[in-house]
Amino acid sequence: MFGWHGKILRVDLTNERVSVETIDPQTAKDFIGGRGWAIKYLYDEVDPTVEPLAAENKLIFGTGPLTGTPVPTGNRFMVTTKAPLTGAISCSNSGGTFPTEMKRTGFDLFIFEGRAERPVYLWVNDGQAEIRPAGHLWGQNVPQTEDALLEETDPQARVACIGPAGEQLVRIAAIMNDKHRAAARSGVGAVMGSKNLKAVVVRGAQEVPLAEPEALRELCRTVRSEVAADVKKGSSLREYGTAYVPIVTNEIGILPTRNFQSGVFEEVEGITGRVLTEKYLIRPKPCYGCPIACGRHTRVEQPPYEGEGEGPEYETIASLGSACGIGDMAAVTKANYLCNELGLDTISTGVTIACAMELYEKGILPREDVGMELRFGDAGAVIDLIQKTAYRRGFGELIAEGSYRLAEKYGHPEFSITAKKQEFPGYDPRGSKGMGLLYATSNVGASHMAGDLAYMEVFGVPKKLDPLTIERKPEYIKHFEDLFTIIDAAGLCVFLSIRYLCDPTYEVMPTRMTEVLNLATGADYTVESLLQAGDRVYTLERMFLVKAGFTRADDTLPRRMLEEPMPAGPAQGHVVELDVMLPQFYRLRGWDENGVPTAAKLEELGLRREK
Amino acid sequence: MKVRLKLFATYRRYLPPDSSGNALDLTVPPGARVGDLLAQVGVPERESLVILVNGRDAGPERVLQEGDAVAVFPALAGG
Fold this sequence. Notes:
- The complex is a heterodimer of chains A (611) and B (79).
- Chain A has 611 residues and is α+β, with helices and mostly antiparallel strands.
- Chain A is globular, with a radius of gyration of 22 Å.
- Chain B has one helix spanning 34-41; strands spanning 2-7, 23-27, 49-53, 56-57, 69-74.
- A five-stranded mixed sheet of chain B has the order 2-1-5-3-4, with no helix packed on it.
- Chain B has 79 residues and is mainly beta.
- Chain B has one domain (2-74): Roll (Ubiquitin-like (UB roll)), CATH 3.10.20.
- The A-B interface holds A 233-237, 239-240, 242, 244-245, 247-249, 251-253, 269, 272-274, 292, 313-315, 426, 448, 452, 454-455, 458-462, 464, 466-468, 494-496, 498-499, 569-571 and B 6, 8-10, 12-13, 21-22, 48, 50, 52, 54-57, 71, 73-79.
């Protein structure tokens, strides 16, 4: 096989045994890789009603056919499991250097099953895998864990691990790699913790075989020169990271502010990319081989926020910053460092604390339960709660459950800004209607990465769409979900893929992406068959949700988004007209009026209802 | 007639060198269009330019009104 190794490493943690399996070429092609292969295995092997933290759940690390190839940004991996935050599937994705190194071990996928009796880590070195004791690492934070593992394995190895939050089964715990990168969402870190799996360490020298290496390298040179030309003209991502975004989302009135009570934040000037670049940036930090370099290596010297690390990026600024009413970049950066060290998802952590702040200010959450004041804008409280959350101490025990369970406990789930119990990312959908449909229907709960139409509604890539209209948005969301599924499954990063591997037209067809995949794999995709493969993966994920008990009632948004008009700014007066978009969207997906894929749709995609 | 021009992301480079924020208060003649305003500060009219007037989508032909806030930035990869 080309692009894929065609090999899967199965890790039975209960019996501490590893084994190697192969995948047949047709399945490889039909499900693309990474995210696609993972849902195929999860659907076939795991009861969708399983308790996410039970030993019977499985945790899958997946690279795609372009991970570890010369394709720029072909350096992502996906974590797929049944998620403890949502009860749906997870699709947490990360870059850094770990994914390429994982692919170089000679395996495309690692499947973790069962539960180790004691803390362990997996060490995969060039085709050889070994389960090793990790008792000495339990309780260590992320940088401590990585440093110790590099010392006892190979200084050139790469590490993915959990911090204290994952060990404590915090429902918003991340899996961290390369210390500062996160497969963050849906509580995947807690699944790793439930399996007593502290870390995965990889080292390898197995090059990815390519179907047409010369032609692929030539095309990659073209892509790189296009990126370089843009960087020369001035690249916002290179200069500011994604931190350039708050000023833009604030301008259109969708920057999450005080738990999404508004989309306009009066202190936005304190959390812009300019502040980050001028005051705290040491240097841009690219993922492996990336010509864009949106990552930020930063340092804060100003007490009490001293520290050094990576970030923040936009989602973190919106959640730990404006959503909590905080307009101080030093404070946000410090909160980001802490989440990374302890292994927490910054989005869910920030938006859950924001929910607690609203409950507190409304007099629903009493001071004695929190143990302190908890008002919007209190950065000290945010930093304190992050630490308590990771160790489930004091009021942190409730933040650790995510905002839905927190707000429900106090009788007001309507103040939890979540879809399928997962906290919203940084675009208030009342002023970005396509994103509203996406959050409501996504298989993973509220997520921008499930089909980020903000590219068009906010940023004008490849073309600008009016964010306030619902016209054609169901079509776009269906298309973007399929596109993002392909990008994830291929092992690509969206930052490059939408702009440089799709047609720069309103149709956003993945023409060059198809070409790149064919040159790498020799799989002979057409644009249509590739989009159909994206649809196949997305629909199978949906089938997992259907069997887990999700219904149309779960494809919804908090009352605030549906009934409370945006109070200020350019989106003032708007709500999300979900009831109009949802039936259109279901029809376009080939799902019935309850959001269940029809028999005809399953047949068209070659899927079976039963395993 | 007074309008405000906001230059985001890499378009900050069109601000005067001593600017600390990202906005310019400018005077334009009645009937001026967004394109005229951009020409006044030297922002090239590219296809990939995103233009907002008072936070809503607009094009270079849009006629300006007293007090309008115009924001421009290059089409960006998302956040």
